[in-house]
């Protein structure tokens, strides 16, 4: 599927001297006014491409200076924005159409740690997905394939095989390609991480890194503190290792609640590790403030337990400056840093890495015992891509396109979903954590959406304690914004109908409830 790149004909057909402005106004303001009207009337929708400067000049018979000034007016009004090497696009409205998601109740004590039993729930969802293979995917965890540099990576792979024809037939180093690890160590400085190439072990994606970290610091039956809601892949990992999960509330704006974790560490002395996603937490999309990051590292260091940092989304945050990882505050090896390039560059390559802090030697032994070395070709390709400016250019384009998709989807959510829906816009990435009206079951919504040909992720898979039954996670992996708009409209109608049915049922039940004898007739 491809992004909508052509603009509707109607706005171009409007005369420069339309009724949007008086003839006494400068021509560039008249042109800006009629595009403003087209945007506000919905003729031009969020995410649609504006004409190039050359096309604008030709269609309206104006100079480059007039065309440029027209676009500057629209930019200052936040109606359009420039995308590097792509042109101008219509921006989504910056007004919040939906109220922010509810913050967690920190007065509620954490429930007792329990063995995880999420795998059967995930298996059921996967099997249901397989019954609808052509469903429009709003439940995925990676961007659309056409947002990744497919051609550049293919060419790099061919060059690597020509230079080193035995790459596919020669076993590689246990820790991973030395050149790649050296490049990663240099790049880690942007996140505030001081490591050398020998302090890095390459892994099969981020999930192997997290599994290795858990195996290094726990034994079956141990308790691990996790965010709530929590990425279901982590819950699956805990279940496979026979570990108990203690769910700590997380805020949709600031992530893991540090006060709640502090209390849990005081009341649950059996906690052996904490797992946190500080930047664009999955599914919340939250970013932890630096003060919270520092406090989190301090708490775990004081308790003498491992802090496992899962950080695959940091480079997708919309920020002028690179965000710091938890590892940046680590002075004694408390933090085990896990990350990957799955979300930012190439989901199919499955390249991750880990620095194990004071557990690094044990993690190296576990990695060798579990899966040996990673295959070399993808590492060599990644090293070539990272050592030029190609990766930075790709990241800028990817963040710009994802921001455009999120804004378009946020506008469609606000226009389509019923009263009672809540949503906190994320600071980047692709995830939307949607709080539906309390009457709507996310499991029922999941089933109804699949029958409509749309995939979503129900909130039930993000907790082992049944805390998020009326939540769903949506994502914006598709670049076909028109199809996404249509899917969200249909989901909004589903949510509205389910809310109305639940309200009608509650009202009917209330009418048939016998009054108590003490009620006044």
UniProtKB/TrEMBL annotation:
Q: What start-end ranges are recorded for coiled-coil regions in this protein? A: none
Domain spans labelled HTH gntR-type: 25-93
Q: Does the keyword Metal-binding apply?
A: no
What InterPro entries would the database entry show?
Aminotransferase_I/II_large (IPR004839), HTH_trans_reg/aminotransferase (IPR051446), PyrdxlP-dep_Trfase (IPR015424), PyrdxlP-dep_Trfase_major (IPR015421), PyrdxlP-dep_Trfase_small (IPR015422), Tscrpt_reg_HTH_GntR (IPR000524), WH-like_DNA-bd_sf (IPR036388), WH_DNA-bd_sf (IPR036390)
Quote any Pfam family the record assigns: GntR
Keyword DNA-binding annotated: yes
The residues that cross the membrane are none
| Keywords annotated in UniProt | Aminotransferase, DNA-binding, Pyridoxal phosphate, Transcription, Transcription regulation, Transferase
Name the segments for region: Disordered: 1-21
Q: Which family does it belong to?
A: In the C-terminal section; belongs to the class-I pyridoxal-phosphate-dependent aminotransferase family.
Against PANTHER family, the record matches this protein to:
HTH-TYPE TRANSCRIPTIONAL REGULATORY PROTEIN GABR (PTHR46577), TRANSCRIPTIONAL REGULATORY PROTEIN (PTHR46577:SF2)
- Output this protein's name: Transcriptional regulator, GntR family with aminotransferase domain
